[in-house]
Amino acid sequence: MREAGGGSRPGRARGGPVRPVEERPVRILVDGADPLTLTASPGGLEELAAGHLLARGVTAEALREATFRVAGSTVRVVLPASAAGRPAVDAVLREHLRAGGVAHVPACPECASRLRRGRAAPPSAARLRAVMAALLDGGSGVHGAALVGDDGVVHTVEDVGRHAAVDRVVGAALLRSWDPAALGLATTARISGEMSYKAARAGFAWVASRSVPTTLAVAIAALVDLPIVARAGSPRARSFGP
What we know:
- By secondary structure, the chain is of the alpha/beta class.
- The protein folds into two domains: 24-104, Ubiquitin-like (UB roll); 125-240, Cytidine Deaminase, domain 2.
- The chain has helices at residues 45-55, 60-65, 89-98, 109-112, 125-135, 162-175, 193-202, 215-222; strands at 24-30, 36-40, 67-71, 74-78, 143-149, 152-159, 184-187, 206-209, 228-230, 238-240.
- The strands form two sheets. The protein has a six-stranded mixed beta sheet with strand order 6-5-7-8-9-10, sandwiched between helices. A four-stranded mixed beta sheet has the order 2-1-4-3.
- β3 and β4 (74-78) form a beta hairpin.
């Protein structure tokens, strides 16, 4: 299951002139639903779309059976006709926005029921330091995210957007049928409520970040006993949750 170094990795200039980091609009078209538009680094759009749609309410089963067709910066997603997650994709997306995004999740039993519990414990402080050190050098202008298993880093991505980076690793685990309950998510970015929700929706076992979580992130993680390790890789590391 090891794919360390895979994914969409924008080029990094080392010692050269400072250049803008590439960022493109990406359109995701799902059957008859309204188009979704986000911005991200180029490449790996199937994984990006799969991870983004999972967080928006489409089921993992439907996405594993879906067909992804990429043309330029547009991803057309055709869900299986019999899939339970096909439905009301448009209604699911609209309801998510109407309710105020993930801010309502801690007070919504139905929303909490869509989250999944992982089973692996966060690695030791020494292993986390190694993982975080390998993610980014801090000067590349992009965010890094990785899936980490018992044997170390399984898959890494980089993206101009921290949410897009998380979507990519969620999609990678989903489309490769990796067991998310045995994987943790490591990221260079602050853990917002949205990112905590994405990790819990995917079923990851833990989250670790160089930065800190928000109060909403901690509240959402508590619904599924998802440990969050803040300031991972530093002497100031602190765990929130079990």
